């Protein structure tokens, strides 16, 4: 699948970039056969259990409360980006049928895949986004001790009807919001096209790390912040649903979120990466877009 790849300012993609994406092997066959198998992968029981919990326990009220608490960034934990990435060394994401190796590998694999296709220094923010996009999973570490269902998995809007394009849709039937008349209409508590920034998404690593970026005054561009915040929102970026909630800015950013998704997904590889070798490069770009120490 060769998806159109606008450059940073939205101009037409360079033929060279398209060729590189091809060479890197993004293709639909691999996608349907090897990735995101939610039916009978070797990890099926663990994955399905993780979604059973998240789809029944994530409610509008729960996610709003988590958001209020965590966006204060007042856990008292202060650390740099690299230190946070190291916390992911031992963390496994139970919602993921494609990977059961420690998460730091996934971060570096994503980032390096982006760097292969977009090598230029003008894309250093994109490399960095690959490296940090799942950092919110430190909520699973013993510093925060959040359960898997409150951290990982595809995300979905709360406060309105659950769309059938969500994987494991049937599990939502056990969610109290499913039968709550305030929340089970098409628009629910929202105004038509209110914009995703006004929507309460299921609580997890995406929204949390977005809050960390904003609250610590990261200078990453808007595209990067969208990739971080909405990369798990598959019903939107893959299935074109929830258009009743998006506004013009969301639609403009959608291409970037999609572009990012290819790297997030197709770079997953059981072979771990040589961390020490590439560490200096990532330290330098972290320095450019983040303060040395962040509040978490
Ligand atoms: O963003 C993620 C993610 O980090 C997971 O590993 C996963 O299993 C998802 O479904 C997802 O959307
Ligand atoms: Fe993620
Ligand atoms: Fe990821």
Present the secondary structure layout:
Blueprint: H1 15-24, H2 28-34, H3 44-57, H4 60-70, E1 78-79, H5 81-87, H6 103-117, H7 124-132, H8 205-215, H9 222-230, H10 234-237, H11 248-266, H12 275-289, E2 294-295
Antiparallel strand pairs: 1-2
Helix pairs in contact: 6-7, 6-11, 7-9, 7-12, 8-9, 9-11
Bound molecules: 1,2,3,4,5,6-hexahydroxy-cyclohexane and fe (ii) ion (2 copies).
Describe this protein's structure:
This protein is an all-alpha fold and 296 residues long. The protein has one domain. It has twelve helices and two strands; from the N terminus they run H-H-H-H-E-H-H-H-H-H-H-H-H-E. It has helices at 15-24, 28-34, 44-57, 60-70, 81-87, 103-117, 124-132, 205-215, 222-230, 234-237, 248-266, 275-289, and strands at residues 78-79, 294-295. Strands 1-2 form a two-stranded antiparallel sheet. Helix 6 (103-117) crosses helix 11 (248-266), helix 7 packs across helix 12 and helix 8 packs antiparallel against helix 9 (222-230). The longest helix has 19 residues, at 248-266. The protein is globular, with a radius of gyration of 18 Å. Bound molecules: 1,2,3,4,5,6-hexahydroxy-cyclohexane and fe (ii) ion (FE2) (2 copies). 1,2,3,4,5,6-hexahydroxy-cyclohexane (INS) binds at residues 93, 95-96, 134, 152-154, 231-232.
């Amino acid at each position: 699948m060769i998806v159109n790849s606008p450059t940073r300012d939205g101009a037409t993609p360079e033929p060279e970039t398209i060729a590189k994406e091809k060479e890197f092997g993004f293709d639909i066959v691999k996608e349907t056969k090897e990735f995101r198998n939610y039916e009978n992968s070797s990890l099926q029981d663990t994955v399905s259990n993780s979604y059973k919990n998240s789809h029944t326990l994530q409610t509008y009220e729960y996610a709003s409360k988590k958001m209020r608490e965590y966006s204060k960034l007042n856990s008292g934990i202060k650390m740099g980006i690299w230190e946070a990435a190291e916390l992911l060394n031992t963390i496994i994401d139970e919602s993921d049928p494609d990977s059961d190796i420690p998460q730091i590998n996934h971060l570096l694999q994503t980032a390096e895949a982006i760097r292969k296709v977009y090598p230029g220094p003008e894309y250093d923010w994109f490399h960095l986004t690959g490296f940090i996009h799942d950092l919110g999973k430190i909520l699973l570490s013993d510093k925060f001790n959040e359960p898997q269902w409150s951290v990982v998995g595809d995300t979905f809007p709360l406060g309105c009807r659950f769309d059938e394009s969500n994987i494991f849709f049937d599990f939502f039937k056990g969610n109290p919001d499913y039968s709550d008349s305030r929340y089970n209409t098409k628009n629910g508590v929202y105004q038509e096209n209110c914009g995703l920034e006004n929507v309460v998404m299921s609580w997890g690593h995406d929204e949390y790390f977005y809050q960390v970026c904003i609250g610590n005054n990261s200078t990453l561009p808007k595209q990067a912040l969208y990739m971080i915040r909405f990369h798990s929102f598959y019903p939107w970026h893959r299935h074109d649903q929830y258009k009743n909630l998006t506004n013009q800015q969301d639609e403009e950013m959608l291409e970037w979120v999609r572009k990012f998704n290819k790297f997030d997904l197709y770079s997953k590889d059981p072979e771990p990466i040589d961390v020490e070798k590439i560490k200096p490069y990532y330290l330098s770009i972290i320095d450019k877009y983040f303060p040395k120490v962040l509040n978490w």
